[in-house]
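Field: COMPLEX_INPUT
Field: COMPONENT_COUNT = two
Field: RESIDUE_TOTAL = 908
Field: MODE = joint
Values follow.
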Amino acid sequence: MKNEAKLKLEHVHLRFGGVHALTDVSVDVREGEILSIIGPNGAGKTCVLNCINGFYRPQTGDIYFEGRNITRLPSHKIAKLGMARTFQNIELFAGLSVQDNLMAGRHFYMTGGLAGAFLGGVYFGKSHHEEVDQRRVIEEIIDFLEIEAIRKQVVATLPYGLRKRVELGRALALQPKVLLMDEPMAGMNLEEKEDMARFVLDIYEERVKTIMLIEHDMGVVMDISDRVVVLDFGRKIAEGTPDEIKANPNVIKAYLGAGKK
Amino acid sequence: MSGDTISKLFKQTSEKYWDKKIALRYKNLGVWQPYTWKYFWEQSKYFGLGLTSMGLKAGDRVTIVGDNEPEWYFAQFGVICCGGIPTGAFQDSGPEEIKYVITQSGSTFVVVEDQEQVDKLIFSYRDREGKEREPITSQVPAIEKVIFWDTKGLRSYRDSKLMRFDEVVELGRHYEKEHPGLLEKIIENSDPEAPVMLTYSSGTTGLPKGIVHCSRSVLAASRCWDSPAPTGEKDEFVSFFPLAYGGEFLYVIPAFIKGGATVNFPEEPETVAQNIRELGPTKASSAPRLLEMEISTVQVKMADASLLKRLAYQLFMPVGYKIARMKRLNQSINVFWKAVYGLGYFVVYRPLRDWLAYPRNRILLIGGAALASEVLDFYLALGIDARMIYGMIECTPTAGHMKGDVDPETTGVPTLGSELRISDGGEVLSRGPQRMLYYHQNPEATRKLIDEQGWVHTSDAGFITEKGHLVCIDRLADLGVLGDGTGFSPSYIENKLKFSPYIRDAIITGDDKDYVGALISIDFPNLGQWAEAHRIPYTTFVDLSQKPEVYELVSKDVVGINRKLPEKHRIRKFAILHKELDADDAELTRTRKLRRKEVSARYQDMIEALYSDKTDYTAEARVTYRDGRTATITTKVHIASVEGEAK
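Field: COMPLEX_OUTPUT
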């Protein structure tokens, strides 16, 4: 089971008018691995994530999640299957507290319905228990990400590094099978990056067994990934272990330009 | 029964309250989780038995490293009940410092909190010189097991020395079945003179020394500090001082287990202030540094408050000071002032006490370092029963304020059963039942500290007033003498400076020089807020510290303090440090005391610049990160002259 593809992209093409954002991209994300996607700016990394969780529809090609074709499914249904993501530019509810933002990530698990919601307003039976159960899950995530001190703070008042962590918390609140992370370390200083790398590894160990990561920091990517996929101008130009990637001439060319012999 | 011991008291109290009363409370998952005496007792007992089954013998040492959490207590009491000696290392120490504690104490077991601490022990690391060192567990083969209680991130670790806390407890349960009544027998035979506590001095001078206390001395210490307001069932403590610093074991623990009180553990170090406010502990002990920070926050927040609040504060605080002084001098307070004070209580003192987490406070004990009288005055003005206590962990408390006899300029009179004397050299000597046994494996240092008559040489310079109060001036070694022979006390001036909300630390210089100079470290959060309010843009700590506006502001505070000092003691020149003083750079101890020798050596060139004609100085500072890496920062530091001559 270990090497089976949890998430599979098959010959995905994505065009915006005449722009070929992704050309024939095939990627397997296996169960139990951290897979990183790297590539220069505009290589189509975020497009891959957006295709996977249904923000974009590829013109041709298919995406499978646990063997099921999800190419045409809407985002919320894909999320419900067990796929969560974080965003490059942090998409939180800025006016809500950290707690409430995480709670929003639990809405799939709330079953109360409309009547329940009304009664829940005055805390009766089932809705009450449900609220308590969900809070416990949230609190465990707060503990996990070490954000106890800010749990009641409004997100808009938090510094950038912490917001990133809250967003990660919301993705975890979904209790996903696969976690997609779009540049979790962008804009962070060295210490924050180290913390985040530690959290990614802890998540891998304790919570989500399959992680797909987009990242620019080569040091981090090479340190924590099992495999790396390199994109350039919407094409996959390399795939392999960090060591293989470091030695791959195509990758060096894409990043540093072709040198004259 | 040949006298009380910690383990006997622990057993008695646990059996008395069993599952009917809460012993410990720990905020976890956002909720205060209660632990009954039964649970506390069982966890400690089985943990101790678990260690015994793995070979722990009476007198063996166990090092504990971690935040203040119930498991720290379980481990500590488990070890004590089995006749072992617990010791602690500060949780933010680097691998080298932890290794020192383990090897100096000769610990065979190390109990740690989490992955962070485990990594320090089982992975190779870089030392201060940047050299790669082997993991501590291989450097110190005497370590039998490394036991951790927080499993996060440790699931995949496969190290034969690693063990989970609950595994040890489980081992203990089995061991109990094979050896029923073993622990109870050890407790029954426990000796009041046997060591129960090993704690390391903060190392303001040289390497930390291991201080060994026995049940008798610990209980004597606790009796001294507990007598003003005896601890009872309803009392609530908060445990937030690093447990490696022995203070809590001498002050809180014996009173807590004797009186059956409750100890509360904050959720995380970052939430301490928040959690203390939620609880409102009835008994508190604090350090001057924390109180200084509290007051700074109040001052800064007051400056930002609405006009009405500011007016109320400015009107009633002087009243509070006045009444506190009258009470102190046992003057009768007339009806008018009583009425004004009563009004002030509702308008200012009570809300402020509530905000500062003292609404239910019965007594606030302050110790650990010298305190500016302004700080104590502030708490007295709010009507808090604040008192200074004096003593070093080796023999504490030896002096303290008694009820109705609080003088902010002194540290009070000798405590229950202790004696105080000033030697011919001006050194404070103390003697009493609360004295430690010896320094662990350091007979030479022990002989240096305790003379034949049993007097403890505190290395503090001080004198005793006519009323019998002790006044502590400074560390003997720190007392400075100006070029013209005038003596001065650096820490006295430093404490005055630190009262300013914008000054976090200060280093006073002037030994063998013509005048007194100061290196000042700013309070970044407070000054940052001030800068924002005054629209002064800044980027980093370094940038803010060197702004001319900041110099101007600090200069005003320095001038103000100069007015209170004798002519010769006035600060003539100062520079603002471009970095915060940090324990990781060995500039402060882990309890945030200044390591004067290290700091003076480190900033020697800058100090010299204070006594030259230069107006700036290019500083190169090497910083050490937690993981042992180093970096160099180059900054231009301004040197300011203070025109304080004008009267």
